[in-house]
Structure formats: C-alpha cells, structure tokens
Hints:
Elements: H1 2-25, H2 31-48, E1 52-56, E2 68-71, H3 78-85, E3 90-95, H4 104-111, E4 114-116, H5 121-136, E5 140-143, H6 161-169, E6 173-179, E7 197-202, H7 208-211, H8 216-231
Helix pairs in contact: 1-2, 1-4, 2-3, 5-6
Amino acid sequence: MSFLDSVRAASLTLRIIVPTLTDSARGKLSEQATDERLAWWSQRMLNDAGAELTVVGREHLPAKEPLVMMSNHRSYYDIPVVFQAAPGSVRMVGKKELFRVPLFGPAMRAAGFIEVNRQHQEAARASLKRSQELIARGLRVWIAPEGTRTKNGKLGPFKAGGFHLALDSKVRILPIAIEGTERVLSADSFDVQKGARLKATILPPIDAPSYGHARRKELMADVRNAIAKVLGDT
C-alpha cells in the first residue's frame, strides 16, 4: 500500500504542475494562484499520508513581513509541512537536481522557486539575486541550510548561502524546527508511510541585519542552535 501512496502523491503533484505550466505559457500565472495551489497541494499531501501535523509558535509568524525562513531537512515531506505551518507567499530554494525532473522542474521555475547550484559560483550568485528579487516583492524565501536531507536524524552543519541572502536583503530569519517527516518518507526510500505524527515549531525571528556580515558565523550558530534546541540535538 505504501507504494500506491507514493503514486498517489505524484498524481497530486501533477495536478498543480499542469495548470501552473499552462498559465505560465499563457502569461497568466499569478502569485495568488501559485499560493492557492501550494496551499491545496500541501494540505492534500499530508491528508493522503494520514499525517497529523501540530504547529507550535504561530504567534512568531509575522503577518506580512518578508523573511528568510530556515528549517532542518529530514524528508521531502518537509515541503508540505512548511507550506501548511507558515502559509502565505512562500517560495523554496531547491537543489538543481529537482529542477531537472521533467514537468516538475519547469513548473517549479514558473512558480518562482529558486534553483541553487553551489558548485558554480556564477550560478550561485544568480540564485541569490533571484531570491533577493522575491523578497523585494514581499515574498518569503524558504531554504534548508543543511543543503540536503539528513540520513541519521542529526542536524547537519549549515551552509552560508541563506545567511548571505538575509544579510544582503536586510530581513529577519524565521527558524522552523521540523520533527517526524522522516517517518512519512525517509531520505533513502520512495515509499510513503501512513499515520505519522508531525510537528513544526516556529521560533521567534532572528534579526539578521543587526549582526551584519562581520558576525555572519555568529548568526549561523544562533539560528542553528535555536533549531537544535527544539530537536534536542545540541
């Protein structure tokens, strides 16, 4: 049954890919339509997996403030969790391999998701610029600073790209600690497991501009420590 659930999840994703690509080709893809599709998709993904999501700390989510959102990364199911925990105009920064998937990759680009290629400096700078443009339009950018899904459950080291983005854009960072998503879909599996209990803890925003570039490493440590404390991974 878990394999059938995986097929069903792919089918749900296709149901937002097709209209996104169609609207984009016609020049009629709006941010509102993208937000609504992502909200519908993320809720259906969790519902179909029988997952129960508890969100703690929504009082820390500013109403309309552009932010860089950062979370730990345990599973592809972190994606629907973030879109449900922190609803609104959120766009994701994802690794380049995701954007190579037929239909899925072009739809992500059309929706405003940002491809990151850390191996090429020029491409990384272009990704940073596109992310800054989204923030300037009032959107929130979500990035998993570990850069990849953990395979042992431990919080990995954080990469600097998202912190440069927050500092250059002069916005705060919203840390989010995610628990349980690896029980839906682990990093080494394609089988969806049903009935998991998930938790997203939204932590108080951290004022990145007050650190400045000179204290970037201290900023990175403070964001990581905030998430690690919730996960019990200090």
